[in-house]
Amino acid sequence: xxxxxxxxxxxxxxxxxxxxxxxxxxxxxxxxxxxxxxxxxxxxxxxxxxxxxxxxxxxxxxxxxxxxxxxxxxxxxxxxxxxxxxxxxxxxxxxxxxxxxxxxxxxxxxxxxxxxxxxxxxxxxxxxxxxxxxxxxxxxxxxxxxxxxxxxxxxxxxxxxxxxxxxxxxxxxxxxxxxxxxxxxxxxxxxxxxxxxxxxxxxxxxxxxxxxxxxxxxxxxxxxxxxxxxxxxxxxxxxxxxxxxxxxxxxxxxxxxxxxxxxxxxxxxxxxxxxxxxxxxxxxxxxxxxxxxxxxxxxxxxxxxxxxxxxxxxxxxxxxxxxxxxxxxxxxxxxxxxxxxxxxxxxxxxxxxxxxxxxxxxxxxxxxxxxxxxxxxxxxxxxxxxxxxxxxxxxxxxxxxxxxxxxxxxxxxxxxxxxxxxxxxxxxxxxxxxxxxxxxxxxxxxxxxxxxxxxxxxxxxxxxxxxxxxxxxxxxxxxxxxxxxxxxxxxxxxxxxxxxxxxx
Amino acid sequence: xxxxxxxxxxxxxxxxxxxxxxxxxxxxxxxxxxxxxxxxxx
Lengths: 504, 42
Description:
The complex is a heterodimer of chains A (504) and B (42).
Chain A: H1 10-29, H2 37-42, H3 49-60, H4 63-76, H5 81-97, H6 101-106, H7 112-120, H8 122-139, H9 143-155, H10 160-212, H11 214-217, H12 241-257, H13 259-267, H14 271-304, H15 307-312, H16 324-332, H17 337-372, H18 379-403, H19 410-434, H20 440-449, H21 472-493
Chain B: H1 3-41
């Protein structure tokens, strides 16, 4: 069997091309509703529950999410499911308690660093804004590459240059409708994309279970470690207790403070809707991991039963494991349905990009440029700067995505770059909201401590025999601990002369 | 602890719960879109 053989045909290309033109039309149509920055960034804070759930899911379930979760399933089997369980429980807990998000929505802030200024002063806001944009933009740096790999696997078109050009064209379309319609356009597209994406995911799951067989799915393939296929804590598993600890902290921090997700809570009509949004979204957060992991597991079982495919993923010139899932589904899903699934995945690609572009550009405008200008910028000027930033970030992504090679595990890259911002932000927000003695010096120390996470991307974290204290996961956990300690020690040693009164 | 049974339950629960969520959000979302445009127009 040819590795890149596929059922993808002309009808599938037509379905995909027709679908990706729709968002552009929506962006142009809703432009008249954008009168001020809060309309552009927060859709005028008019989001009601169901639309908020759709847009939250559309944002947090991107093509890159599908790719890294499928890769985890392909490499680790069912033991990867623990990530889904951890994330769903954390999101549910946030929804039920309103931890952080309820208070932030009450305060009517537009971005996380805006809270920094209210609580700790302008300097903290600018530092927080810089670190947030650095971590966030780096975090989405590999989205394009993962998307290109998906396309290669599904279409069977193995010329990387051509595919990257195709992905670039899609990114440009996202730029156009995001620049034109802002959050209103993003919300409508996310709703459409939520539906298309979900239908695609159900179709994909049906064919995976049908091809492998329900009972066979739960049999351990002979080519893998018998216990680690199911047990994430077993010896020989890629995970272990440090990894699980890292994921619990990261899920809680990302759930409450990842700007693109938090933006949905901040755009919610009331603080109560923000809480309900998280409670309901715990289901979609679970699905965004479990379903792609299922595809990855099916892909590995399929590959392990097909000798020439198994050979392609072994040895010195082995294919990247990200190819496992797309190559598999391209062979088992019939033409027509494959086009629908690809359209669903493109929907995921676009709905994540639009929201991330909007998030990071609004942070640069509101939290870096405006405070430096001492808030003398008009609303019109802020809108212009936000739009220019969207285009600049898009250009950076094109360049970064085209030349930077993905580390061994895409998810670990995502987790580490996310930690650059999240570790500091989580410490600062928790202390700022719930501890009266939290000081601006402690906040600045915590934010800078987050930069330690960059060490998790170093060459010393690669290879098979890396000591546990040099692993990216251990560095990630330590970054959270150091940031939190920095916040506490800094606040106790250098208290603020006057504690800011935070108005809720 | 039987991990296989746990993950089997997680998979079934996710597929079932997500199916229901998609149906609810589809109909509720259309209503919300109409309301959002009313808000933005006023």
